[in-house]
Specification:
The chain has about 325 residues and is mainly α. The protein has a single domain (about 30-280), classed as Ferritin, CATH 1.20.1260. It has 13 helices and 2 strands; from the N terminus they run H-H-H-H-H-H-H-H-H-H-E-E-H-H-H. The chain has helices at about 5-20, 35-55, 55-60, 70-95, 100-105, 125-140, 150-180, 185-200, 215-220, 225-245, 270-275, 285-295, 300-320; strands at about 255, 260-265. Strands 1-2 form a two-stranded antiparallel sheet. The relative contact order is 0.10. It binds benzoyl coenzyme A. This is 1,2-phenylacetyl-CoA epoxidase subunit A. It comes from Microbacterium caowuchunii. GO terms for molecular function: phenylacetyl-CoA 1,2-epoxidase activity.
């Protein structure tokens, strides 16, 4: 390496550091450290995969929604999730990875996606619990990401968060309707809350002292709050909403500690989280197989699109030559 290269690298690093310190945005055209680029690709692609895999648990109820109105709303929500996945894949592509590479990392089982989507959805009340708890956790986690230092990610998050807050309200409304119904409907709503409560707390990731990526992502202003801080915020949001719904959160230890100014709770069962991350959750295999099948079934569409693009390019070339 020559002295000139060393000076140029130091200048680029200094410019990057200044952007971060000034809370400005890093854009695709800007120089960035390789580790920053890799971290963003990791997080944004995992996030995109989560949106795409996250269509499955709810997709399971589109044909069985209890009314035409519920069906239309659920269909729109699942379509929004596809859209979120696409904005996020596009944001990741600005960092130099292709959509094809990301798709293969997912279907080959090499990429992570959110643990939450590896649980089954046996009842209609699961649609309510997913909206209220899963989208609720997603909002707590994602609103701060609107200020993420990488421009394309932050901007994608602004639009995603607007849609997520609608999703959360529709989930709350499904549960509210069930809670105002028959005893069996109330029991179904409570059962769904019991099953989704702990997994939704795990969505924020491991506790701070076991979160290897947090320190660096916070220094780079990708993450603005720690996993535990966000979990606390989420609990603060849930407790009054659970009261309004009339559901019980399934943790007898949960209470506000006035002295410590934080929620106290039963320790999360992190062994369940690690089992899911290792691919051994109740629905891991099904989710991945469905995604693989969809990819294979869509091969003809990709081939047709590539052939169309090839013909268009050839026509343009012939026109130019003429
Ligand atoms: N599930 O050092 P940590 C949605 C991994 S979609 C699986 O704390 P980091 C929706 C983590 O990746 C919601 N893996 O990591 C869609 C890391 O592994 P690697 C998706 C998890 O990145 C449809 C390791 O554990 N939201 O809203 O600093 C319908 C150590 O963790 C999980 C996002 O993706 C998990 N829950 O923090 C409805 C948000 N947690 O990569 C709703 C964007 C941790 O080192 N992502 N891991 O092998 C983030 O904010 C952060 O990546 C996380 C983790 C907070 C998730």
């Amino acid at each position: 390496m020559t002295a000139d290269t060393v000076t140029a690298d130091a200048e680029q690093q200094a410019h990057f550091d200044d952007l971060i310190a000034a809370d400005s945005r890093v854009e695709p055209r800007d120089w960035m450290p390789e580790a920053y680029r890799k971290t963003l690709i990791r997080q944004i692609s995992q996030h995109a995969h989560s949106e795409i895999i996250g269509m499955q648990p709810e997709g399971n109820w589109i044909t069985r929604a209890p009314s035409l109105k519920r069906k239309a709303i659920l269909l729109a929500k699942v379509q929004d999730e596809a859209g979120h996945g696409l904005y996020l894949y596009s944001a990741a592509q600005t960092l130099g990875i292709t959509r094809d590479e990301m798709t293969h990392q997912l279907i080959d089982g090499k990429a992570k996606y959110s643990s939450i989507f590896n649980y089954p959805t046996p009842t209609w009340a699961d649609m309510g619990a997913i909206g209220w708890l899963v989208d609720g956790a997603a909002i707590c986690n994602q609103v701060p990401l609107c200020r993420a230092s990488y421009g394309p990610y932050g901007r994608a998050m602004v639009r995603i968060c607007k849609e997520e807050s609608f999703h959360q309200r529709q989930g709350f409304e499904i549960l509210l309707t069930l809670m105002q119904g028959t005893d069996a409907q109330r029991a179904m709503a409570q059962d769904a809350v019991d099953r989704w409560y702990w997994p939704s707390l795990m969505m924020f990731g491991p506790p701070d002292d076991a979160s290897p990526n947090s320190a660096r992502s916070t220094a780079w202003k990708i993450k603005r709050f720690s996993n535990d801080e966000l979990r606390q915020r989420f609990l603060g949001m849930l407790v009054p909403q659970a009261e309004a719904l009339g559901v019980t959160l399934p943790d007898p230890e949960l209470h506000w500690d006035e002295d410590a100014q934080r929620w106290r709770m039963t320790e999360i069962d992190w062994s369940e989280f690690h089992e899911i991350l290792a691919g051994r959750g109740p629905m891991n295999a099904v989710r991945l197989q469905n995604r693989r099948d969809a990819h294979e079934d869509g091969a003809w569409v990709r081939e047709a699109a590539a052939e169309y693009a090839r013909k268009q390019a050839a026509t343009a070339e012939n026109r130019e030559a003429a």
